[in-house]
Amino acid sequence: MHLDIITCLPRLIESPFSDSILKRAQAKGIVTVNIIDLRQYATSKHRSTDDYAFGGGAGMVMMIEPIDNCISYLKSQRAYDEIIYTSPDGTTLTQSMANELSLKKNIILLCGHYKGVDERVREHLVTREISIGDYVLSGGELAAAVIADAVIRLIPGVLSDETSALSDSFQDGLVAPPVYTRPAEYKSWKVPEVLLSGHQANIEEWRHDQSIERTKKRRPDLLEKP
Ligand code: SAH
């Protein structure tokens, strides 16, 4: 996968890709992440990427021209499957959306800032808009990092234990069962006996039952979905 992230504040998004799983995914050559400073595509003398809103009101708006210049340049280099704008009124990110995106090859993530982008960017330049939840962030960088993380860890080869993404919450419409590690007893708090039994079939059955019980208790809405 090739991921281009367009932002006017590159430093805000660098660190999530410089550690742990996302760093390893790049080192293994499974994904390339390119963080692009939108200012490079600004045309004005001061390299500004935002301007006052027509009609007045508080807050700046990201201009279409630098964004169009940037996206046009990127499109001249490769064909994109998706050009995604991070937006609080976009479709809410879900695990199944992450699964779908993990199969794509080339993706652009456009981070908004201030009041957001000129509406014409949304009308003419992006293919999809994704929200990470019903709250407002200061910028799209954290949202882009969340989307990228959720997607990249699903690409085969990224996680060392390939089955581990499959047993995560939401992957099968259920939340994950509880997990334990040593010691088997701590301050008289014990690990469930079955997990120490070595009987794999019983363990799998217990985990499945726990998943269902937990989903009923914590996320009954997941069980109502068709
Ligand atoms: N005025 C806008 C919010 C702008 S917030 C509104 O009320 O809808 C600034 C930028 O942060 C947005 O352009 C978007 O890119 C990003 N952002 C904020 N909240 C987000 C969310 N929940 N999901 C994804 N991106 C978000």
What are its keywords?
single chain, 226 residues, alpha/beta, five-stranded parallel sheet, two-stranded antiparallel sheet, 9 strands, 19% strand
Would you write up a description of this structure?
With 226 residues, the chain is of the alpha/beta class. 35% of the residues lie in helices and 19% in strands. The chain contains 9 helices and 9 strands. It has helices at 11-14, 20-27, 64-77, 95-101, 119-124, 140-152, 193-196, 200-218, 220-224, and strands at residues 2-7, 32-37, 50-52, 60-62, 82-92, 106-110, 128-131, 185-186, 189-190. The strands form 3 sheets. It has a 5-stranded parallel sheet. The longest helix has 19 residues, at 200-218. The radius of gyration is 22 Å and the shape is elongated. The two termini are 31 Å apart.
Blueprint of the fold:
Elements: E1 2-7, H1 11-14, H2 20-27, E2 32-37, E3 50-52, E4 60-62, H3 64-77, E5 82-92, H4 95-101, E6 106-110, H5 119-124, E7 128-131, H6 140-152, E8 185-186, E9 189-190, H7 193-196, H8 200-218, H9 220-224
Parallel strand pairs: 1-2, 1-6, 5-6, 5-7
Antiparallel strand pairs: 3-4, 8-9
